[in-house]
Every structure is written in C-alpha cells, then in structure tokens.
Amino acid sequence: MAGSDGALGATFKAVRILQALSLIAIIGMAANFISQMVQHNNAPSDVLVGILSVTCVAVLYCAITYILYLDNILPFLINTGMDGMLLVALTVVAVVVGKPLSYLNCQVIGSSSMSQSTYQLGLELKKSMSSEGTKVQYSNWIGASRVTCYQMKAIWGLSIALCVLFAFSAICSVCLWRRSKAVAPKSVEG
User: Fold this and answer.
1) Cα separation of 106 and 156, whole Å?
2) What is the pLDDT of residue 109?
3) Is the pTM of this model over 0.70?
C-alpha cells in the first residue's frame, strides 16, 4: 500500500488529499459569501476575493503535483519551494482572516445581550448592503450573522491547518528528494 516510496510517499499522498479537501471546503464557503454579496449588488470584500484566488491556485497545484507524484515525475526540490510559497500565502490568508475574527464571539451575535458596538456593526452592514455598488467591508461582513461568523471561523481554522499541512508536505518532499538522490550502495560479492 505504501508503494515504492514507502511510508514517506504514503504520507505525502495523504497530506495532499487533506490539503485538497480543506481547500475545496474554503473555496465553497468563500464563493458562497461572494455570491451573497453580488446578489445584493455589492462588490465583494477584497479579503474574500484574495482567499478565493489563493485557494483556487493551491487546489490546482495540489491536483497537478499529486498526478505528477503518481507518475513518478514530480520534481521534489521544485515542489518543496512551491509548497513553501503556498505556505507563505496561506499564512497571510490566516492572519488577514483571523485578525478581526479573533476578537469576535459568534455566540453573542443575534442574542438579546448584544453589545452596542455589535449593534452598530450590524447597522453599518445594513447601510452598506442597502446602497448598491458599494464594497462590503470584511470586518462588517463577519459580524452580520452567527452563521457567517462560524463559517468565517471555519475558513480561518482550515487556513491554519493548511499552513501546517503545507509545511509538512514540504518536509516530506525534501525528504523524498534526498532519497531519490541517494547513491545506491555497491553490491559486495561473497
């Protein structure tokens, strides 16, 4: 089951599958948010467009490198560098998405004990949504509803998990590269 690359190769494949699944989940949620904004005749948030751009490129990259790995033609050293670049991009996504989310308590959104600042946030969002053609501010959007808040926290959590997964796949890739460059031992005849 592990194949010619052993447990390291099986780990690489498993990590790539987890990356693709996480990326597809993020794409679905971000695209849904953008669709909702466009339906209200508003320009989508730059943060959500950025998330969608990075994750679309990353899922395409994961699919291509998985196929190349299965065909034994994946250039491991280049793959390590690309994994590192995606790690940086996803770290930026996690920080940008998480900065306002880390202060937001999703449980209090929509409850009767909502603070005045949360109320004002909702009013700003309603004002933004009622005027056509305006750009929705990310910090306003995440506080619009409890469901939106939880979905954005899911995107944030998956982004953090993807940072770990891309770091791990880069390590696996460099180890696979070293293994492929290792010189085979000379056979000793008895």
Assistant:
1) 14
2) 81
3) yes
